[in-house]
Model the fold of this input.
Amino acid sequence: MIREVAKVVSNNECTSDVYELKLLVPGIAKDAKVGQFVNVYCKNQVNLLPRPISISEINGDELVLLCRAVGVGTNEFRDLKENDEIVIMGPVGHGFTICNEQRIALVGGGIGIAPLVELAKLLPKESTSVYLGIGKKEEVGFIKEELFRKECMGVKVATMDGTYGTKGTVMDILGDEIFDMIYACGPLPMLKALKKYVDKNNIKAEFSLEERMGCGGLGTCLSCVCKIKVGDSEKWEYKKVCSYGPVVDAKEVLFDE
Amino acid sequence: MIREVAKVVSNNECTSDVYELKLLVPGIAKDAKVGQFVNVYCKNQVNLLPRPISISEINGDELVLLCRAVGVGTNEFRDLKENDEIVIMGPVGHGFTICNEQRIALVGGGIGIAPLVELAKLLPKESTSVYLGIGKKEEVGFIKEELFRKECMGVKVATMDGTYGTKGTVMDILGDEIFDMIYACGPLPMLKALKKYVDKNNIKAEFSLEERMGCGGLGTCLSCVCKIKVGDSEKWEYKKVCSYGPVVDAKEVLFDE
Amino acid sequence: MSRLEVSLAGVKLRNPVMPASGTFGSGYEMSEVMNIHRLGAVVTKGVSMEPWLGNPTPRVAETTSGMLNSIGLQNSGIEELIKIDIKSLQEYRQKGGVVIVNLAGHTIQEYIQVAERLNSESIDMMELNISCPNVKEGGAAFGTDPSVAEKVVREVKKVCTKPLIVKLTPNVTDIVSIAKAVEAGGADVISLINTLMGARIDIEKRQFVLAKKYGGLSGPAIKPVALRMVHQVAQNVKVPIIGLGGIITAEDAIEFIMAGATAVAVGTATFNNVNALENIIDGINTWCENHNIGNIMEIKGVV
Amino acid sequence: MSRLEVSLAGVKLRNPVMPASGTFGSGYEMSEVMNIHRLGAVVTKGVSMEPWLGNPTPRVAETTSGMLNSIGLQNSGIEELIKIDIKSLQEYRQKGGVVIVNLAGHTIQEYIQVAERLNSESIDMMELNISCPNVKEGGAAFGTDPSVAEKVVREVKKVCTKPLIVKLTPNVTDIVSIAKAVEAGGADVISLINTLMGARIDIEKRQFVLAKKYGGLSGPAIKPVALRMVHQVAQNVKVPIIGLGGIITAEDAIEFIMAGATAVAVGTATFNNVNALENIIDGINTWCENHNIGNIMEIKGVV
Ligand SMILES: Cc1cc2nc3c(=O)[nH]c(=O)nc-3n(C[C@H](O)[C@H](O)[C@H](O)COP(=O)(O)OP(=O)(O)OC[C@H]3O[C@@H](n4cnc5c(N)ncnc54)[C@H](O)[C@@H]3O)c2cc1C
Ligand SMILES: Cc1cc2nc3c(=O)[nH]c(=O)nc-3n(C[C@H](O)[C@H](O)[C@H](O)COP(=O)(O)OP(=O)(O)OC[C@H]3O[C@@H](n4cnc5c(N)ncnc54)[C@H](O)[C@@H]3O)c2cc1C
Ligand SMILES: Cc1cc2nc3c(=O)[nH]c(=O)nc-3n(C[C@H](O)[C@H](O)[C@H](O)COP(=O)(O)O)c2cc1C
Ligand SMILES: Cc1cc2nc3c(=O)[nH]c(=O)nc-3n(C[C@H](O)[C@H](O)[C@H](O)COP(=O)(O)O)c2cc1C
Ligand code: FES
Ligand code: FES
Done:
């Protein structure tokens, strides 16, 4: 993990609030692995905390981030222009484990699609199907359907309002398919539903989690914890999303009701 | 007084730490009078208070400011580029009163020279002599000697280290000249010395004062006070530099020892 | 009742936004740069019986996202306030504005005198400042001990014929006990917070930036402390609360109302932007519109 | 004696800069991103006798120039700390680094047990945290009443064989009386400040950002309060002081030393910039060089 000044290669608007940021950041890119994240720091000095953003793609010296503008930080980054500089720290955390199962599903909800892009490239095309859930048709702008189609054997999309693909959530397009392995990232309600699904069907799965962070993955502040089961018992302990995760074994993780 | 977004016309380096900022700011410029000041606000949101800066020149829709980079704010403004925007409020306060005396001196110390530039243009050339005190030769870069020579009948310069003009302070070049009116702006020690001089010789004088400001001239916070004599007695009261001043009658003002 | 209308101890405000005492002069100074008729109330700077000189300068220092002040309640005394300031606010008041006068005193007796003097004047409420960190006697000395605070309020309440707001200092271990004490003493409204005591040093000069060393910290830096105290107090008293401390935006103001405040006051923000108060009023209104809120009090204390 | 060397209750530090407890793990986590051997001391996160679970999430919230935390002293207990954390710091210690363990407890008895257990370990000092705002019993409950604070310190001091630092909470009316009390109780060093209690509300969700509602405010926002308290305490006690609260730059650190601190600690700054501690050490050194200062203690308390 290092702190590095990244240079903006490009910053493209995908939808009204999602943008794709390509950064030249050789030191971090060299070590980056699929499913890890980086911290982006605000220029505005009133905002001290790091903004954790998943690594969406790793292209040589460059990292691609897919960001949704939701607050001060992500709005600040939206205004970055080519050649601007921005401070980044990473790569952080434990990413996805590449498996060699036959029937693999990538399940992404909203901006949680981001870390699945690199993953799609690394998994065997013929084993991997993609299930994406978004709110409405406009969001097709960031889901990289083309890329997923190229790298995987099928892509299904659900929209909440039914304006594109199937109407409903990503759970609705998973249907009754049988999988050996599911990789997922997305909003908490989606992960909760998936958790029930994989537990019930006894499917292996890895979830990429989100939690508010203080130190941004140094592992020193203990702000970003999630509940992880201890052995096979009912017991759990708080583990750090930033360093134990962000990707965790779905069997281990416990969500609050 | 209005709040206005100014556009930077130009920003030129005069010396290693002084720069000349030309601003297109029609609303404020229209009302601006010699000796008044404006407040410049920082982009950096951690710095909330206004930076009071004298109006150095008024040219139609444009104001010229002469700034010395001494801290966060004045360093931020130093980086302003052509066409950048910056928030300004003004014009603020009571400026200099134009007189028609025969023997007028403009006395400026360091960056205190700034408000005297416009004043030099307004006073009759043949009555007005200029006395400028600076630290060292390099600072000749901002004192606008040419302009003063054009507008006034003589310019004398003193440097602390003797590298330009006379060695010493501005008090040393005033010598034994007799004046009817002195206009002065500069560091406190200079004003204190001048105050003794004009009191002793019973010369009319106006001083432009500095004090730390909260509201920046709205007159609402009472942070910027100076001691002003009440009538002819020994008594004094605190008056606001921002609205009673920044230019005050030298006879009225009291400096702490 | 209109969307932003609120009521403080029976006094109707057209909206819950007012300037914080000491940051707005007496209001008329601001007429040049803003439309003061838009304000829910105007709160004048602290006034004492006799004129007070205030503290030596520098009286302000900038801090990260905040500022320190040690004005020391400079004011020209109650007679001058009545003659000039209150008079100049009459047009505002006649058009439906609420005028609140902030009271300063070195002794209980002085507070009482000021309150008595004001009873017959054309003002709507008085705000008792028992929280100024910048004067030796009076000020915060009265606001840090529950029994002293209760006594001051009770005594002033005996003479004061207008609804009485009591302004609390945050420099205490237990804000709830102070709030309960002033409520018991008869406060009609509680306002909080005044400034936190702080300092800044100029390391090149090797001295404090403020002539008086310590001053009162205000601005966005203190907002989390203010918000916590407003919530704590709202949970424990029945009288309405005016919340303040670091409000810069409409969203900040809404946080205070959700924490339990009935109205809010804005100080330091105005120094950074003369339009702050108007922007906040507009912003609250828009937010309520977008969230289908009929009257702002629907979100009071919802957290 | 080198330029930056200072001494705290007989313990020599190669420089006056250390991380703030709870913001640096136990130090070894940071070895990946910085050279911890440069630090004057390492202060470990708070440790209790048994493992503590900590609070539900969200545990942090950003505020203007600051942050709130309500970690709740999650830790794996003293045995784990000794086995893993203290062990991993031995290389640092052998090379001249000072190891300080921060103690947490729900009861006086628990503090005593932890201190006793640590006496025989290879550490240099203990820091008693009687100021954590995020746990119900213990923590700040011990730090807000002078007589309770004195008692806790006296009892721990009876068993503790290492120099004892006592860390104070700023959420009090009179920091001087608390400082005097812990000095009377036997504190060898006083550190201040811990966090100010604050809150933040998410107005769209209509709930507090932190799961526990209130949390501890740290970062540059609180620096003026910290600096004022360090100065007040330095004027009134004889034991050395570790100053902290909002230090981001070397200049900030120098302000604390000029206010009377012998050493400084840095917390939130590290979250924003992992190089903060090293930058501060370098910056103090350069400043001293430029100002012809032979040893940093020449400027201690100069204001
Ligand atoms: C491991 C991880 C990976 C992520 N990957 C992406 C991604 O690839 N693309 C993307 O658009 N977003 C991603 N997020 C969410 C992203 O971190 C937040 O949207 C962002 O921090 C919001 O910052 P802000 O300043 O815009 O919002 P504000 O609400 O102004 O932020 C205030 C504070 O809350 C924190 N915060 C707010 N929302 C979140 C959140 N959802 N998760 C964690 N912290 C939050 C911020 O970091 C900041 O400290 C990821 C989060 C995590 C934890
Ligand atoms: C009426 C008036 C006219 C001025 N005219 C000029 C001018 O024409 N050119 C110029 O270069 N400077 C001028 N100054 C000084 C200028 O205001 C300060 O240099 C500037 O505010 C410093 O801000 P900073 O952020 O760079 O410094 P910092 O030290 O970081 O500022 C911190 C705070 O202290 C205040 N402050 C610091 N120094 C001064 C000072 N000398 N006077 C008042 N406030 C101060 C700042 O405004 C700010 O609130 C004038 C001051 C006054 C009062
Ligand atoms: C310059 C200044 C002067 C103040 N004078 C007074 C005063 O006279 N009476 C009073 O009750 N509070 C006074 N205060 C405190 C404010 O009313 C308010 O409580 C505090 O500034 C916090 O609000 P803010 O963060 O919005 O500024 C003053 C504050 C400032 C900054
Ligand atoms: C995430 C976090 C965890 C903390 N944990 C502890 C702790 O375990 N023990 C303690 O004494 N102080 C703890 N503190 C308080 C800090 O040590 C420090 O006193 C405070 O943050 C102020 O310093 P700063 O502004 O430099 O962060 C913690 C602070 C933060 C931000
Ligand atoms: S973000 Fe600090 S431990 Fe995870
Ligand atoms: S700066 Fe506020 S009264 Fe002068």
In short: Residues 19 and 136 of chain B are 16 Å apart (CA to CA). The longest strand of chain B covers residues 2-13. Chain B touches chain C at residues 1-3, 41, 45-50, 87, 89, 211-216, 218-226, 237-238, 256 (CB under 8 Å). Helices of chain B lie at 26-31, 72-78, 114-122, 145-151, 170-174, 188-201.
